[in-house]
């Protein structure tokens, strides 16, 4: 089999599960379409817990996402394929999506950018986030909008970008300077509650 035939073969293996086990379709639909809001909430909560580690983690996740999206656009300019539902017949399509280049998966890039960053900073809880990112990638195949290669390449781009950002960004003085300015302004506008000390 050539690369495209392998891609289609594994797409069918995953996507056909929705026909064999239709009770799981709502679960994967919710993950594919709405879990992004859960990720956004997690980023918000991590940031406003006001710890240096959490804030650097969110900064790294954000930089990783923009960097990975840039690499994703380059990859998309080198290879083109439409959504499986536009190219194949008898697809278990649970999500309606405009026909365009589905390579690589933007949802996968977003999730792996932040979830890999979470794992690099917080190994124990980061395992949960990496599993969630994996579920997101599988869900995009399950609902019929991406091939496995779209997801795999998106994940690899994000993982590589996250590693590079983790090694560079926390060591940049300008990042700490800008974060310091922000935190001073935040403290002035919204003073953090100080814990009372026992006398």
Automatic annotation (TrEMBL):
<feature type="transmembrane region" description="Helical">
    <location>
        <begin position="126"/>
        <end position="145"/>
    </location>
</feature>
<keyword id="KW-0472">Membrane</keyword>
<dbReference type="Pfam" id="PF01569">
    <property type="entry name" value="PAP2"/>
</dbReference>
<feature type="domain" description="Phosphatidic acid phosphatase type 2/haloperoxidase">
    <location>
        <begin position="58"/>
        <end position="166"/>
    </location>
</feature>
<feature type="transmembrane region" description="Helical">
    <location>
        <begin position="27"/>
        <end position="48"/>
    </location>
</feature>
<dbReference type="InterPro" id="IPR033879">
    <property type="entry name" value="UPP_Pase"/>
</dbReference>
<keyword id="KW-0812">Transmembrane</keyword>
<keyword id="KW-1133">Transmembrane helix</keyword>
<feature type="transmembrane region" description="Helical">
    <location>
        <begin position="151"/>
        <end position="169"/>
    </location>
</feature>
<dbReference type="InterPro" id="IPR036938">
    <property type="entry name" value="PAP2/HPO_sf"/>
</dbReference>
<dbReference type="InterPro" id="IPR000326">
    <property type="entry name" value="PAP2/HPO"/>
</dbReference>
<protein>
    <submittedName>
        <fullName>Undecaprenyl-diphosphatase</fullName>
    </submittedName>
</protein>
């Amino acid at each position: 089999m050539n690369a495209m035939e392998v891609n289609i073969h594994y797409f069918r293996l995953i996507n056909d599960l929705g026909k064999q086990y239709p009770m799981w379709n709502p679960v994967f639909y919710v993950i594919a379409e709405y879990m992004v809001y859960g990720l956004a909430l997690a980023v918000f909560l991590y940031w406003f817990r006001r710890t240096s580690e959490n804030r650097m983690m969110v900064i790294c996740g954000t930089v990783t996402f923009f960097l990975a999206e840039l690499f994703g656009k380059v990859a998309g300019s080198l290879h083109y394929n439409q959504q499986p539902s536009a190219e194949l017949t008898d697809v278990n399509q649970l999500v309606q999506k405009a026909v365009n280049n589905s390579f690589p998966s933007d949802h996968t890039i977003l999730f792996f950018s932040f979830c890999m960053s979470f794992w690099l900073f917080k190994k124990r809880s980061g395992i949960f986030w990496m599993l969630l990112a994996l579920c997101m990638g599988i869900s995009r195949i399950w609902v019929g909008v991406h091939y496995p290669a779209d997801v795999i390449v998106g994940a690899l781009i994000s993982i590589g970008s996250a590693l590079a950002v983790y090694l560079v960004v926390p060591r940049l003085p300008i990042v700490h300077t800008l974060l310091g300015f922000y935190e001073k302004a935040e403290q002035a506008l919204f003073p953090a509650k100080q814990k009372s000390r026992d006398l």
